[in-house]
Specification:
There is one protein chain. The protein is mostly helical and 147 residues long. 66% of the residues lie in helices and 0% in strands. The protein is built from 11 helices and no strands. It starts with a helix and ends with a helix. The model has no long low-confidence stretch (mean pLDDT 85). It comes from Streptococcus taonis.
Length: 147
């Protein structure tokens, strides 16, 4: 399992960056950065977001521990991921205590359209996706099961 500070070091080296050059990009001292790589401290959300941009990875990837999975498990997950949006959408709606009609009203659509999204018949356009994510307090990456 790879922890945040270990991933950070690996990603930095893959990019061919020194601690000094990366700390300059982040507008922090090299010593502060070194503490991140040593696991003594962690960046705030703003710096974490900057790291995700620099390394072209998600924040979830940076913070989650890496687990190797078998090819069979990967293929099964990939297949399940097709319907993950619908599953997560319903899960969020229920967690927040909304009916389909109430949530549809909040994002400005008809209930049957919303129902189609939850049943995997179709997916919303980007504008509606942003409204859903903002209203329910999640990222688009999370809604679609991306790292």
């Amino acid at each position: 399992m790879e922890k945040f500070h270990e991933k950070l070091k690996v990603l930095r080296k893959k990019k061919g960056l020194t601690q000094k050059s990366l700390s300059n990009m982040l507008n922090i001292s090299q010593g502060a950065y070194a503490q991140w790589e040593n696991g003594k401290r962690e960046p705030n959300f703003e710096k974490l977001s900057m790291l995700a941009c620099i390394f072209d990875v998600s924040i979830d990837f940076l913070l989650s521990e890496y687990l190797e999975i078998s090819k069979e498990t990967y293929l099964k997950l990939k297949e399940e991921k097709k319907n993950l949006f619908s599953v997560r959408l319903k899960e969020l709606r229920l967690q927040h205590g909304f009916s389909q009609e109430e949530l549809a009203e909040q994002i400005g659509i008809k209930r049957n359209t919303y129902s189609d999204w939850e049943n995997g018949k179709c997916k919303p356009n980007y504008e509606k996706l942003e409204k859903i994510a903002d209203f329910l307090g999640v990222s688009l990456d999370w809604l679609f099961g991306r790292e």
